[in-house]
Amino acid sequence: MGARGTIVAVSISTARGEKKRPIPVGKLEPDHGLAGDGHAGSQRQVSLLAEESIAEIRRLGLEVSPGEFAENLTTEGLILHLLPIGARLRVGAKAVLEITQIGKECHTGCRIFEQVGTCVMPTQGVFARVVRGGEVRAGDSIEVIGDG
To answer: Which domains does the chain possess?
Structure first.
């Protein structure tokens, strides 16, 4: 099939705009998002960021971990921000996501921007809606199954 990668971490927070904490298993709910997350039910149901993007900030000297950019799914092996709007991704055994947005404006007081003068979410963060639900955990595959 298409390009593929791996889920490095699944992270949630109950409030928007804050660092997320890793969880062992997440439940992606159709047309809602990641169960228990503050963004579930919003226009940006699920947020994704590639480990390769996080590495750019580490090279600037800031030690950051998955979830610190408020992303739900941290991936490795797929350059997410180069995928087109409408691309579909199979996550784990069953879940399907559809990319709805690439990039976003950083919120005021972004700790990462304040410390290193840049952030990757405005250009490399990806947002998706849940087309088909399912469980997701670190180690699961993520694969492009349609390019929109």
So the answer is: 4-146 (2.40.33.20)
Count Cβ atoms below 10 Å from residue 122 Cβ, excluding itself. Answer: 14
The answer to whether residues 25 and 135 touch, using CB atoms and an 8 Å cutoff, is yes
Q: Are 125 and 103 in contact (CB under 8 A)?
A: yes
pTM to 2 decimal places:
0.88
* 10-residue stretch averages of pLDDT, the chain, 148 residues long: 90 83 96 94 90 82 79 93 94 97 69 60 83 98 89
Encoded tokens for 129: 């809606």
Angstrom distances, CA of residue 19 to CA of 11, 59, 82, 92 = 9, 20, 24, 24
pLDDT value of position 141: 98
